[in-house]
Amino acid sequence: MIPIAKASDNLLIPEQHAALIYVVLVAATIAGLYTYTRVVARVGGDSSRIRSDLFSFADVPVVGLIIAFFGLTAISAWFLNAPKAEPATLKLEQIIPGALQFAVFPIGIMVFLHARNVSITEAFGLSKVRLGKAATLALGLLLALLPSFFLITDIAARKLGEGAELQPLVELYRSGVRERDYKVILHTFVAAAVIAPLAEEFLFRGYLYATLKRAIGALPSAVFGAVLFAAIHNNAVSLPGLFILALALTVAYEWSGSLWVPVFMHAFFNSLSLIIAAATAHQQP
């Protein structure tokens, strides 16, 4: 996930048109909430669309390790004043390898599931929805979500002022846009719009949520996963919006029964975030 930027860059609503745009966003948010309410109602009538039954107590220790790792990472970043990498320390050749490091977790889990004769295709509903339909559903659900995300993020940005710093990858990407370094732009899009959605959705929605759902139920699992997902991105401005996004991704997975739908939603969202970051790149020297 790529949070858009620091607080001043997240002011998506110009001051001179703020009142009108807020009215439009509130109306669109209400429409989007209505859409998700109907989707959730349909999920409630059919809670067996995702195959959480394929996950067992053998998966609980693995999920515990995942929670411990990312939980400690989030706590360290938010509360222990862990040192942050300077933007200049991130280089072009580190972008994709850095993203692939996160993919180690899904690969290890796939090996673990395969060793227990659990079908990856069945476990994550990969054949339930055609890719074209999954992309269409994802786009529709994301469009319904975006007004609330923009509204919440803009309010958070105004409250926090300059309280959130750029991530090194975002800084490098914006620098690449300013300097027309197309290698940096391409590598960032591959990392953010391809590798990150596949790895993070497999881990958070596909494995962590489905396993926890068997133990503590759908709602607590969805909320806990959303909190963890938002927290690990270590961006105060984006935190409320990412929490809402994570819940929406879980709803999309439950509704469709296929992990492809949240993967496409995540990919579209990250692509839009990068487009916005590129559009504002020249605002910061």
Number of helices: 11
Secondary-structure-based class equals mainly alpha
Distance between the termini: 24 Å
Tally of distinct domains: 1
The share of residues in helices is over 70%
Topology pattern, helix = H, strand = E? HHHHHHHHHHH
Strand count, sense and barrel status of the largest sheet are: none
Q: Taking Cα atoms only, what radius of gyration do you get, to the nearest Å?
A: 19 Å
Shape: globular
List low-pLDDT spans.
4-10, 82-88
Please indicate the percent range of residues in DSSP E strands (runs of 2 or more): under 5%
Report the average pLDDT across residues: 86
What's the count of strands? 0
Structural features, described:
- It is a single chain.
- The protein has 285 residues and is mainly α.
- The protein has one domain.
- Helices cover 70% and strands 0% of the residues.
- The protein has eleven helices and no strands.
- α1 crosses α6, α6 packs antiparallel against α10 and α9 packs across α10.
- The protein starts with 17 loop residues before the first helix and ends in a 6-residue tail after the last helix.
